[in-house]
Amino acid sequence: MNARCALGRYGEDLAVRRLGEAGMTVLERNWRCRDGEIDIVARDGDALVICEVKTRRAGGPEHPMAGVPVRKAARLRRLAARWLQERWPAHRTPPGGVRIDLVGIVVPARGAPMVEHARGVA
After folding, report:
1. Which residues in 1-122 belong to E strands, given as ranges?
2. I want to staple 94 with a disulfide (CB 3.0 to 4.6 A). Which of 48, 62, 64, 87 is the partner?
3. What family is it from (predicted)?
């Protein structure tokens, strides 16, 4: 595993912990299909949450919470529909709908990482 993959994995582990602290249940991590990957699939009450995780080292050119570009948001919505089709019971939309969240993590050279969770970004 290279340093970039290790940083991403570390960020996803922190995101899973943060989502759990927020009362969410992680259903799946790193779900892949031919159309792409969902970092985290979780449940927040009756809502299904598709969570994109962005991890950056401090001082990088872009803050991880810079947002989800329109193209990425569209792809996440397509992936959510595919996940529901393949994994959700009875292939119906969850009662609470589907939401796309973003967890941004900044890892400093020293000290604790900063973790931010934005709900409903796309």
Report:
1. 25-33, 36-44, 47-57, 98-107, 114-118
2. 48
3. Belongs to the UPF0102 family.
Main-chain phi, psi angles of 42, to 5 degrees: -140, 170
Q: How confident is the model over 40-96, as pLDDT tens digits? A: 999 999 999 999 999 999 887 788 888 788 899 999 999 999 999 998 877 678 999
For residue 42, the model assigns a pLDDT of 98
The CATH number given to whatever domain includes residue 11 is 3.40.1350.10
Q: What letters, b where the CB count within 10 A reaches 16 and e where it falls short, cover 8-42?
A: beebbebbbebbeeeebebeebebeeeeeebbbbb
pLDDT for the residue 3: 81
**Domain count for the chain:** 1
CA nearest neighbour of 29 among 9, 3, 48: 9
For residue 84, count other CB atoms closer than 10 A to its CB: 18
